[in-house]
Amino acid sequence: MRLKVDEPTLERFKKIASRLAVQRGGMTAKNRDRPRPFDDAETVAACLGLPQRIRREVETKKRNPRSNAVLAQMAAAIALLQAAPIRLKNLTGLNLTDNLIARAKSFYLVIGEHETKNREPIDFELPAETVAILSWYVREYRPFLLKEPSDALFPGEGGRAKPSGTLSMQLSWTVFRYTGLRFNTHLFRHTGGKIFLDARPGHYEVARRVLGHRSTATTTSLYTGAETRTAGLHFASIIAERRRALEHQRSSKKVSSALALQAYRQYITALFGKNKVS
């Protein structure tokens, strides 16, 4: 039997149904497909080595100083996103006085909770190679991008930071130019999580803290499918390693038994002569 209801009632039912619908977690199909090239170790190596590759090119090729400065800026931004995969809004807003802090002999990326999406503060110690790229860019090439005094790490017009859209577009183009990968800025977060979990399957809490998710459940829902292949390989490699160890152990026992028997026979022969050895 079919019931007919008026349009306003139908709309109310639709709204109720939308609130009751179970929300699916994890990445969209499109975002699951984009990191797939990072199943290949050569692709991972090419992308992780991109800041250094750009730096070598900037230092060896003659071109317009401002063009070199923009490339150096891209190298610095990529190095920073690889070490600390923050969101584009936070990347754009970084400044030299509040967000890049020296403490003793270490260098930190610091972002207050009032500036992050999940209201959790960011306080990451940056690795030496990231600090080296940032220092190189700030010291030698950032001055070419300044038209007015500015504390912005990535300066734009009027002393302000470069617009997010411009920085994102330049980063995407740079990655595509050097690797052939179509890459938006947010994918630095997805691929960073994937590369880490491929190397350390199941270490969701570390990924959660770095990516700034509110709960481990969020991280798990995003990456469980993405790391299944690597988890399977890791599982199989442990089983194979255990098999080889046990085979070696059994083989060693057989050799030891054979050597013991041989030594026993030699001992009996020495005592009683060859005819006494069975």
Strands ordered across the widest β-sheet: 1-2-3
The class by helix and strand makeup works out as mainly alpha
Radius of gyration: 30 Å
Low-confidence stretches: 21-25
The CATH homologous superfamily of the largest domain is named Intergrase catalytic core
Structural domain tally? 2
Total number of beta strands = 3
What would the CATH topology of the largest domain be? hpI Integrase, Chain A
| Biggest sheet details | 3 strands, antiparallel
CATH architecture of the largest domain: Orthogonal Bundle
- The best one-word shape is extended
What is the CATH top level name of the largest domain?
A: Mainly Alpha
Topology pattern, helix = H, strand = E: HHHHHHEEEHHHHHH
- Average of per-residue pLDDT values: 78
Percentage beta strand: 5-15%
What is the overall number of helices? 12
Report how far apart the termini are. Answer: 95 Å
Q: Portion of residues in helices?
A: 55-70%
Description of the structure:
The chain has 278 residues and is mostly helical. The protein folds into two domains: 29-189, hpI Integrase, Chain A (Orthogonal Bundle); 231-276. 59% of the residues lie in helices and 5% in strands. The chain contains twelve helices and three strands; from the N terminus they run ααααααβββαααααα. It has helices at 7-20, 29-33, 41-48, 50-60, 65-83, 88-92, 128-140, 164-179, 187-199, 204-211, 216-223, 228-272; strands at residues 100-103, 106-111, 122-125. A three-stranded antiparallel β-sheet has the order 1-2-3, with no helix packed on it. Strand 1 and strand 2 form a beta hairpin. The longest helix has 45 residues, at 228-272. The protein is extended, with a radius of gyration of 30 Å. Mean pLDDT is 78; it is low at 21-25.
